[in-house]
Amino acid sequence: MSPVNRRIVLAARPHGEPRPEHFRLEEGRVPSPGEGEVLLRTRWLSLDPYMRGRMSAAKSYARPVEIGGVMVGQTVSEVSASRHPDYGEGDLVLAESGWQDFSVSDGRGLRRIDPAGPAPSTALGVLGMPGMTAYTGLLEIGRPTPGETVVVAAAAGPVGSLVGQIARLKGARAVGIAGGPEKCAYLTDDLGFDAALDHRDPGFADALARACPDGIDVYFENVGGAVFDAVLPLLNDFARVPVCGLVSGYNLTELPPGPDRVPVLMRAVLTKRLALRGFIVWDFADRAPDFLREVGGWLREGKVRAREDVVEGLENAPDAFAGMLRGRNFGKLVVKVA
Amino acid sequence: MSPVNRRIVLAARPHGEPRPEHFRLEEGRVPSPGEGEVLLRTRWLSLDPYMRGRMSAAKSYARPVEIGGVMVGQTVSEVSASRHPDYGEGDLVLAESGWQDFSVSDGRGLRRIDPAGPAPSTALGVLGMPGMTAYTGLLEIGRPTPGETVVVAAAAGPVGSLVGQIARLKGARAVGIAGGPEKCAYLTDDLGFDAALDHRDPGFADALARACPDGIDVYFENVGGAVFDAVLPLLNDFARVPVCGLVSGYNLTELPPGPDRVPVLMRAVLTKRLALRGFIVWDFADRAPDFLREVGGWLREGKVRAREDVVEGLENAPDAFAGMLRGRNFGKLVVKVA
């Protein structure tokens, strides 16, 4: 066991892209669990776009990380010492323990992971928060019906890839948008998407229109920006837009130049009777059992596939995180910590 | 009976505000009903903001009026001659007969008006399309719960005034936004709104914030523009925004200057989990019986009140219509034609 606890704290709030100076690796003593507590050792750390929001002081749906505070994040951790009646040494748990080697928990918020089940790291991806985000956003807000066209951006990521696969399982056409030919080939060849478009292609907007000859009925919004601009004119009457993320804007330091296109967007909402709705996964917490049963079943049966992008070493988390915001990852980004 | 049929046709498509030269008053022969048809004489013509959209060639939820075509509009008309088995001379009907003295109908789309019921012109207002717009948009999309705050703009108009009154009947707080002190006084003193704000007041945004100390849960969008800008920061998590109209933008000839604030709006949708949804009244056509029963009952019991702004003479419709788009009307604008 490592004699020190390494932890990555927020050193400064980024204005724009997170860079190395916004993080600091600190070493400290491994904490000791008190009565009723467990000591957790991080095995896998999840890196997710929402963390960019927590680095900023702006009001959002969750409190920002404080300067000097450990970066937040879900982990798969192993109980390395227990003074808690419900947990024994070696148990695997899902924890909100952040970017560090060790942490102490009183058990609240832990969820046990079945060591005989799927690979533990899937609890951070297809069977975890990203998977449930895809499942609930698509089915509770997007509500595709057979034959409809579902478009999703960041489609090679953990949320988008599941959105498209579930859309197909529900009888809809799935059109994915991703960055680069390799990711696009993965969507169509490995995941069965009906079409995939590279948003870096200069002819992207036209290609999207050709890939959606019957328009778009559901646009699962992960990215915002230029992709949304290309989608908006293609939305059909009564289209649904679950707004899950806006990753293209997370590092924006200023608004795009004018004109102000809010009236264009609102006119489309009115005349096409669009439904735009923001959500976060916890808004649908009561769907967790259905999600685990249904997506877990699809995964076992090979009807959905999930890809991981594994980074070795906690110290590499900041660079991997910054890369993810630029679309560098290919699959669910996880850090193998121990 | 007038020996001629006066009709107001679209002479040219306006770029910006409709002006006299965009309309033309034509006189023609009174048409003769064929077998199975009725001749209708217009008593009341409804003037509504949606008609501005029909004057433009841009794609919307309904086809534009053709150049030289009679301006569209709902009327309360009297059957002045009948060769239709279901209608007799003197019957009152709701018709889509447009801006003219006479028209012929084969009966399709007509709805009989009970001469013993409320004043016939209410079929164009509180018991007609505007009333049902308020009822369905508020209850199907806004869904206010007791104690929530409902804000509506164009609140002294036929849609907004009913939105606020229904919100109160459902136990919510109603805050109205209107143009000028007279309309604001009407909202609070006559209709029982909890507060009313004048959007022309230079301190409007601050006043709105003070009038909504617990934020805004439902914003019924009739106008867009600066009012929406003031509302957006006050929206609570999970607020609902039925998008019914954007009258402040109907005469826009160019987009407002930058920056482009679409990212601001989308970020609010995401972080506050807002639901924005456009609708037109016909999307909820199956609610018509409930609407007529419930709002009809409230009207009889004096629980809702409706105000009309009556203009005399078909020839005055263009000027009255242009004035309405600038907020000049005070209550449901109807033209007394005959």
Commentary on this structure:
The structure is a homodimer of 338-residue chains. With 338 residues, chain A is α/β, with parallel strands linked by helices. Chain A has helices at 50-54, 129-142, 158-169, 181-190, 204-211, 225-231, 262-271, 288-300, 317-325, and strands at 4-10, 23-29, 38-46, 75-82, 92-95, 102-105, 111-112, 149-153, 173-178, 195-198, 216-220, 235-243, 275-278, 308-312, 332-336. In chain A, α9 (317-325) links the parallel β14 (308-312) and β15. Chain A binds chain B through residues 53, 59-61, 221, 224-225, 228, 237, 243-246, 249, 252, 254-280, 283, and chain B through 53, 59-61, 221, 224-225, 228, 237, 243-246, 249, 252, 254-280, 283. β13 (275-278) of chain A pairs antiparallel with β13 of chain B, so a sheet runs across the interface.
